[in-house]
Amino acid sequence: MKEERGKEKERLEREIRLLKEEIARFKKIFIPVYEIELSIGEADVLKKKVLEYIKEHPGVLTSEILERFEDYPPPIILKILYELKREGKVKSRNV
Fold first, then answer.
1. Sign of the C-alpha dihedral, residues 82, 79, 52, 27?
2. What's the predicted TM-score (pTM) here?
3. Each residue's pLDDT tens digit, 26-44
């Protein structure tokens, strides 16, 4: 019983740590961002790259996707993720 509680405590602590990391990354998103435009061709290529990355890494976290594509502003990547979800190409879940 004590061992089970210890494992549960470790699991919850790990989840809390991951959530804190994600919150820190998301805070960067809310820093004022200048309007950024990608050409239609660039946006399509980036969208395909993001989708390919997700397919290669099932269960990947949003924060990991943002980190992988850190050369692009987070709002652009989040918009792509929203579009992919709306199109039914990816699913999201709470962790």
1. negative
2. 0.61
3. 766 655 444 456 777 888 9
